[in-house]
Amino acid sequence: MSSATRSEAALSRIRVVLVRTTHPGNIGAAARAMLTMGLSRLVLVAPSHFPHPDADAMATGAAGVLARARVVDDLTQALAGCALTVGLSARPRAFAGRVLCARDAAGEAVARTSEGDVALVFGTEMSGLSNEELALCGIAATIPANPGYASLNLAAAVQVMAYETRLAAGDGSVWRAPRFAPATHDEVEALYAHAGETLQAMRFLNPAHPKRLMPRLRRLFGRAGLEREEVNILRGILARIDQFTGRKGR
Amino acid sequence: MSSATRSEAALSRIRVVLVRTTHPGNIGAAARAMLTMGLSRLVLVAPSHFPHPDADAMATGAAGVLARARVVDDLTQALAGCALTVGLSARPRAFAGRVLCARDAAGEAVARTSEGDVALVFGTEMSGLSNEELALCGIAATIPANPGYASLNLAAAVQVMAYETRLAAGDGSVWRAPRFAPATHDEVEALYAHAGETLQAMRFLNPAHPKRLMPRLRRLFGRAGLEREEVNILRGILARIDQFTGRKGR
Fold it and tell me: Are B26 and B131 within one domain?
């Protein structure tokens, strides 16, 4: 099984459970947040309003996640069959068992998908999970936040946990800067030789007092890692300068 | 300087720049996302509508971030004086220089606050930063996402970057499970001794064929890490069972 397939298999075993969500727009925004990270199994426990046009509007391209969402009456039904249940809470609780930060909880969630389904459980907007609801979860997870204002929007919290889950599943790949043909050592050295002569002809570089000009230029272009096309452009510029100074090209 | 103060100092040097935002609600949601992670400097480049009641509604407790937001006409003004500028882009670009994933970009952003202000730049909702806008940024950053649906809501993208920035600044602290007095070694051994006798009196443990019962119980309670109060509760339960079996307490 390829690494991408393994990662998809792990993500396909993760349910996002939203408990007693008040605003249907948040359900739609949560569905969108999930799908951007490759999660698609949504369970709604006693939502105030669902289905609802606000949910559809906020889901944008994640309408399919809403269409397949399961609606249940209580949290016990939502968690049935899970190998691990993770309850999110911003508030400290007097009777919590294990409490992990979001990143560690995501790592554990993905690891436990080898044993079965895993639920990420989010409480109602105003007050989060009740103590009774959190007690049904195997571990508590919390997103590091500003202690002066730790009030993440529900869909924002889903976004952060889904993001950490995707990375924990090993699919943190991103687009890369385009790669063009690098210049060879010889091409780069010819550039420096040309530049040295042009700068002398311009009377910017004095061979009797060269100071640190050429080492500084080598350091700058060395850091950038020159491509062949870039060497050609720079030599074109030098050749044009040479026409003004009367230096003969080699 | 304490670690918390150092972290706050780094976060105070980070600007979030939103370019040509269309929906004022997204500006408010972004302000809320920022403040939950301890960021408070918002710069708006040519927003379609600002100030606006939708922005206020979505900001909830982060109204102060909106009140102090700076509104400018173009991106160049927004980036003036920055030591590093980071442009977010979900789309690959043919002419990008350095491209980092969100986590690495956040690490670099925080590191560079020692040299001056750092800007995190987010484009317009529908199409993101233009090539010309991204070219004004020193590095490009991208949030790992589902290649089939990488469309994070603007405020959700701000939330993820702000979260990574907070963690990169070293303030990933979270609430911890409460700690109660642990049981001593002697108390735990007395519990196992009591349990062994009670289980014999119940005829659940046969000393002639003990199998692996006691080692399994030791393993279970060892993993949990018993507290003193828990040992007292368990011994209370054992003593109650002893009343039924007629076993004399020690």
Answer: yes
Cα–Cα distance for residue pair B250/A223, rounded to 1 Å: 77
Please give the helix or strand (H or E) that residue B120 lies within, else none: strand B117-122
Taking only the tens place, the pLDDT of each residue in A158-207 is 999 999 999 999 988 888 888 888 899 899 999 999 999 999 999 999 99
The answer to whether B125 faces chain A, any CB pair under 8 Å, is no
CB-CB contact of B31 with B11 (8 Å) = no
Q: pLDDT tens for residues B70-105? A: 999 999 999 999 999 999 999 998 877 889 999 999
Number of domains chain B is built from: 2
From A98, A146, A175, residue closest to B92, measured CB to CB: A175
Q: Does A220 touch chain B (CB under 8 A)?
A: no
Q: Report yes or no: B65 and B88 within 8 Å, Cβ to Cβ.
A: no
Q: Do A144 and B171 touch (CB under 8 A)?
A: yes
Mutation target for B interface from A146, A171, A230: give the one with most B CBs within 10 A: A146
ipTM value of the model? 0.84
Do A32 and A132 belong together in one domain? Answer: yes
Interface test mutation site (partner B, options A5, A36, A98, A176, max chain B beta carbons within 10 A): A36
Query: What stretch of H or E contains A42?
Result: strand A41-45
Domain holding B157, by residue range, is: 3-168
Q: Tell me the chain B residues in contact with residue A92 when contact means C-beta distances shorter than 8 Å.
A: 175-176, 178
Residue A14's SS3 state is: strand
Give CA–CA dist A70/A61, Å, rounded.
19
List CB contacts (< 8 A) between A177 and chain B.
96-99, 140
Q: A residues 197-216 near B, CB within 8 Å?
A: none
* pLDDT tens digit sequence for B139-161: 999 999 999 999 999 999 999 99
Is residue B217 in a domain? yes
Could you tell me the sign of the dihedral formed by the alpha carbons of A57, A60, A62, A67, in that order? positive
Q: Do B152 and A91 touch (CB under 8 A)?
A: no
| A residues 74-93 lying closer than 8 A (beta carbon) to B | 91-93
Q: Does B177 fall in a domain?
A: no
d(CA B29, CA A121): 22
A226 in reach of chain B (CB within 8 A): no
Query: Is position B175 within any domain?
Result: no
- Give the CATH number, domain containing residue A191: 1.10.8.590
Alpha-carbon dihedral A16, A22, A25, A26, rounded to 10 degrees? -40
A203 to chain B, minimum CA–CA distance in Å?
33
Q: Which of A168, A193, A225 is the last residue of a domain?
A: A168
